[in-house]
Amino acid sequence: MPESRDQPLVLGIETSCDETGVGIVRGHTLLADAVASSVDEHARFGGVVPEVASRAHLEAMVPTIERALADAGVKASDLDGVAVTAGPGLAGALLVGVSAAKAYAYALGKPLYGVNHLASHICVDQLEHGPLPEPTMALLVSGGHSSLLLAPDITADVRPLGATIDDAAGEAFDKIARVLGLGFPGGPFIDKAAREGDPAAIRFPRGLTGPRDAAYDFSFSGLKTAVARWVEARRAAGEPVPVADVAASFQEAVADVLTKKAVRACKDNGVGHLMIGGGVAANSRLRAMAQRRCEDAGVVLRVPRPGLCTDNGAMVAALGAEMVARGRGPSAWDLSADSSLPVEETHVPAHDHVHEEELRKDNLYS
Ligand code: KG4
Ligand code: ZN
Torsion angle, CA of 91/104/26/124, rounded to 10 degrees? Predict the structure, then answer.
């Protein structure tokens, strides 16, 4: 259903990794989602090269903003605010987005909202499934993060329950794809190969699932090593590597741990809704297993469509619109990119009055 025109119209810019994303949202309605990816430029390195990503953002920024405005059929002057990922992410890449957002917001005379990338990944689900229940449990799994977050208020209160202690889930997919000679990024290739394989063929280890292990933390480096060793041993013995079975068994181990811990977090905290976001949420086995385990536990599962799970500007616009709707104050004009912005900081508020005074004093006397 179209939302009324008095819902905030917000443009969101995302440049934390290799996607230049610009989204336009009115309230909970997605009007445009323009993405330019530099992923092909990183493929031959098997991972994202920060300097290459920053340069690509710079080149793609203005055309992507113009494309989003044209797709949405709105004028920049109609916007109620400009939101941008302030962190976490690659410092140089973030800086391009923050600088662009400042320039547009300042030139247009609109408020600027520096928001958290992780909270945006959660908030994007509002564009697909309507308002997020409060609290919502979120499992964020991408190339950069694997986190379990409890979100009583997506604009102001997001609490980390656990995270990976080594590799992110997506990183493990990318590395195992390389071991198996599949393409980059590895997730979609493993997902595809696994369809022809037996998930029970090889029992790979499930990290941090012992009785004394942290209930909500993840570890994928042991799994990664186990898979690599298994493959190496086959090759050393001159035997063929059953790629589909290895892919399916590896994927099974990842999906098993992620869904078990996420459902447990819901139960332990009395939360009835689980959302899964980030690039790995596109994984077909993870989605199917989460669906079954949530049903068994009486938890409602919300997973946005794959295009909204991977990095995009719509998610930033969605959180920006929510900030405006809930009357959260904008960021200051000296907003800076923070590559390690803590997840609890859903947005970067303007400095308090005292701090502004100090800044003025500094300017006066220095
Ligand atoms: O959220 P995203 O686009 O960027 C980051 O913030 O990292 O996530 C990218 C990650 C990559 O590691 C990619 O291999 C993984 O998401 N991915 C998948 C699938 N599609 C993307 N992993 C497993 N199965 C998939 N179908
Ligand atoms: Zn992300």
Answer: 0
Q: Is 188 in the pocket of ligand 1 (CB under 6 A)?
A: yes
Residue with CA nearest ligand 1 atom 22: 187
Strands in 9-14's sheet, in edge-to-edge order, are 29-37, 19-26, 9-14, 81-87, 112-116
Locate the domains of the chain by residue range.
9-128+309-326, 140-303
Ligand 2: centre distance to CA 260 (Å): 22
In degrees and rounded to multiples of 5, residue 152 shows phi and psi of -70, -30
Q: Is 88 in the pocket of ligand 1 (CB under 6 A)?
A: no
- CB 358: neighbour CB atoms within 10 A? 11
The answer to whether 191 is annotated as binding is yes
Is residue 279 lining ligand 1, measured as CB closer than 6 Å? yes
**pLDDT (tens digit per residue) in 47-80:** 788 888 899 999 999 999 999 999 999 999 999 9
Q: Look at ligand 1, atom 13, and give the residue with the nearest C-alpha.
A: 187
pLDDT of residue 366: 39
User: Does the C-beta of 174 come closer than 6 Å to ligand 1?
Assistant: yes
Whether domain 140-303 has CATH 3.30.420.40: yes
Fold agreement (9-128+309-326, 140-303): yes
pLDDT tens digits for range 156-167:
999 999 999 999
CB of 167 shorter than 6 A to ligand 1: no
Tell me the whole-structure pTM to 2 decimals: 0.91
Asked whether residue 283 is marked as a ligand-binding residue, the answer is yes
- Alpha helix locations (H) across the chain? 39-43, 50-72, 91-108, 117-123, 125-129, 169-179, 186-194, 221-236, 243-269, 284-297, 306-309, 313-325, 353-365
187 annotated to bind ligand: yes
Decide yes or no: CATH 3.50.50.60 for domain 9-128+309-326.
Answer: no
Rounded distance from Cα 155 to ligand 1 centre (Å): 25
The amino acid that residue 286 corresponds to is L
For residue 59, report the phi and psi dihedrals to the nearest 5 degrees.
Answer: -70, -35
* Closest protein CA for atom 26 of ligand 1: 283
- Give the pLDDT confidence of 167-201 residue by residue, as tens digits: 999 999 999 999 999 998 899 999 999 999 999 99
139 labeled binding residue: no
Q: How far is CA 280 from the centre of its chain?
A: 9
